[in-house]
């Protein structure tokens, strides 16, 4: 007490981590201070952009590297306007761009052509302007992004890039002007960023002078020199002499101060761990007789700086030893140099355990942040004051829930509500309960649903909420896969069979149910395979050529075998194909309108892979699958949806009956597993199936409209969930524990019955054995 701020200093080991923490805490406590901010020039907007641009040639214009350049948000196009970073990032992913100028051009042009084709389809259907806007905007953005990448590739072209110091610095300066704009474009930059931009320009001008030392450094050496130049502090907080001085050991030594606080006195930090230079070890350095400094000498220099810092405090000095590192979750050992000072006071050297239990008026210890708050007389800021008050309440036996502090602190109140809400066995607004007034009705006559959408709610209501209510999609990470992905293989198989069946139906070139597909049909299927295979190859979806040769051959054989399996199927069931990829609710076709037993009306869309008509007039609806049959083994008339998981077959059967038959027409619905031996599972569209379907839809719609969206991670020994339950790839243990607690809420009973997680005990039999009524 009684010491002015400008007579105090805080010394730290000199790394950015300590500098930033000290600056943050002093600013939060409103304590005036001055010193280097710990922010590097390379972390400024201009520094990051320059480093990202110089790294692009080594990454072959990888999508991630290009987006790293754009991520600053300050990149401008030729017209000086900021580029649409988010839209371009999403578009590049959708186009499956990975790296390479040629791939950028090929896949963005293909993406633009796809949007153009979609636009033509919509115009042919007479779609209104709102439906045409999306493809037009995506096509235009694909062209803009391609032009930007081509200009970037030209600017980085090694054949046009100079190789000398003056030329490289001039080239780098032009890159900054090209992508960060003119001074007028940067007029609204924060002052610290404008100053950093000027300092980066100065750095480049200074590097030009190295031409007198080395004529042609090459890009790699130039990039290293730029990185070294940017690895320095960019700004300073406050004015020297005003407030507490904050700096490294070397900057404080020799100042005239009354109080010095020295932090970071732990082994491994002060002094840092000694590591020999892998290129020039001390044994090699000694051979040049003092021309090169030794690593051991550097530690001695640091020791002298620390001792000089200790001596700077004329009135008192405070030496601080951190007990542990929260970042690495490891315990720390007191610095040997701290123990030297303790030994000077005690006359003997304590070990770390003895230091912990030391009792002296000049020594204090705190086992945790909470204990520090309990011992605090003068909190540094409002946050510490509030926490200290809550700790005092706890010692009086009061929970934070009933603290007076809660009445005046809205943030604390909301935090307590969140914690208590998630601890409770009932669903709350903090773990999946949404006010139904905020949710649109799915039976409003405008919303068009899909089977997949409702299946998603059954699997994980939280994932449904994120995707379909909030519109938060999970972005794929494009990569040059070793082989074609299961998703792309399935899409490819569907497209080939759709084209084959559609061409055969439209050409009236179908065999009778008793005749096999002919040689011309097999040739047609081969031709379509060739065309569709070439298309996915051009989009980079097939992986490595050698693996695609194997995978493509397998798929072609599976599709040819499909015709042989179909010969047997048509002959046995007396079937003739009548429709392929039959759409409802898409492409101008009316959606399926479904009336639930409770009077609500739902509208659905979908695409039916295939519909056959039997000789007796009945229909067989088939949905093709390229996965394994084992996941669908339980599908039957007794269990058509398997605990709400599969809704496509009843929905598709109803849509086909409405479009191609009468309400009393017999309909059979099936899954056909193309790549699993042509296996088939299915069931008739019977009254029990439709009754169950109505019950399942009612349960799902009730749950959604009542706002039930708890997270339900899948059962897995590895704890791997969906992108929504496991967004950080750290597992779903906490989500699983939360679901185990919330599933006890009686409001979720209908949902739990649907997914097979709750079984009714059934009626209880009461047998009267007679006897007295007493």
From TrEMBL:
InterPro entries: P-loop_NTPase, PDDEXK-like_dom_sf, PDDEXK_AddAB-type. Signal peptide: none annotated. Pfam families: PDDEXK_1 (PF12705). Transmembrane segments: none annotated. Residues 449-726 form the PD-(D/E)XK endonuclease-like domain. This is PD-(D/E)XK endonuclease-like domain-containing protein. It comes from marine metagenome.
